[in-house]
Design a protein that fits this description.
single chain; 300 residues; alpha/beta; Rossmann fold; 4-stranded parallel sheet; 8 strands; binds zinc ion; Bact_metal-bind_prot9; ZnuA-like; coiled coil
């Protein structure tokens, strides 16, 4: 046996196992998910900060540099990042992380989007032309994103496939148990009406059996007129609506006007992982928001 050759092979194989997979994600929700599946094998950076609205970012040279140095790039999909990710991907010289490359993950692949419009109103400013992209607020539908991420990690780091798959199984089990727990708690509140600002929490609200009766935005991404706000206040009362919810980056003054006009509480929920110290990862994000809605509706 050629000892020198054997030693070299051992050395290469040790390196391939020990190297950390460098991952860039668009959102902090996806960052947390990659960390759950990748554990200590990955080093993850998110391009969007927790309190930034991922619909409205501009591509920057820093983003291009970041994904150019990555082994894997994970985007949310359903056109959440349509205003900036295509440009970042065009600019990078790293072909692997471009769409279709082995280092690219569209986390939404295989997920059935809710609220797919019959005729997208892009020209009117609709930012959900492919349906609602905010699935990561609901951990069970996010299991498919976790699978897509595990597949991506295995493509670039096959040596640790068993590790990634075991973590995926653990996430599926943990998320099923958490969501079932909250569905049980919310069963007494089934069908309670909610008014939302943007459609950010719809996957979560639907999973919990709540009824989204209306939105402060007339279309996703479109600011409400005074007439629209007045119509909401005259159409609903505290019998038809239990709570008004919003994301921190929208106009709280308008949402407060609607909530006070109807006579219910306004909740500013955590929109993403890391938005507060209560939401360090994706399951905590769901639990924190579900708990706040539950309490606002009279649960303990
Ligand atoms: Zn949106």
């Amino acid at each position: 046996m050629n000892l020198k050759k054997t030693a070299t092979l051992v050395c290469i194989s040790a390196l391939s196992v020990l190297a950390t997979v460098r991952v860039t994600t668009t959102t902090t929700d996806l960052k947390c998910l990659v960390e759950k599946i990748g554990g200590d094998k990955v080093e993850v950076t998110s391009l969007v900060r927790p309190l930034q609205d991922a619909h409205y970012l501009d591509a920057t040279p820093g983003m291009v540099m970041r994904i150019s140095r990555s082994d894997l790039f994970v985007e949310n999909g359903f056109e959440l990042e349509m205003g900036w990710v295509p440009e970042v991907l065009r600019e990078t010289r790293n072909r692997d992380v471009r769409r279709g490359g082995k280092g690219h993950v569209n986390a939404s692949r295989g997920i059935q989007a809710i609220q797919v419009p019959d005729s997208p109103s892009r020209d009117q400013g609709d930012v959900h032309p492919s349906g609602n992209p905010h699935y990561t607020l609901e951990p069970v539908v996010t299991q498919q994103a976790a699978r897509n991420i595990a597949d991506g990690l295995i493509r670039v780091d096959e040596a640790n496939a068993a590790f990634y798959l075991a973590n995926l199984d653990a996430y599926i089990e943990e998320s099923n148990a958490l969501v079932e727990k909250w569905q049980e708690k919310f069963s007494e509140l089934e069908g309670t009406g909610v008014i939302k600002f943007h459609s950010h929490f719809d996957y979560m609200l639907k999973k919990l059996g709540l009824r989204i009766v209306d939105a402060i935005e007339p279309l996703p991404g479109l600011a409400p007129s005074a007439g629209h706000v007045a119509r909401l206040i005259s159409r609903y009362d505290e019998n038809s609506v239990g709570v008004v919810i919003m994301e921190p980056w929208h106009d709280e003054r308008v949402a407060r006007q609607v909530a006070e006009g109807i006579g219910v509480e306004l909740l500013v929920l955590d929109p993403a992982v890391g938005a507060s110290e209560d939401t360090p990862c994706i399951l905590a994000l769901f639990e924190h928001n579900a708990h706040r809605v539950y309490r606002a509706l009279g649960g303990e």
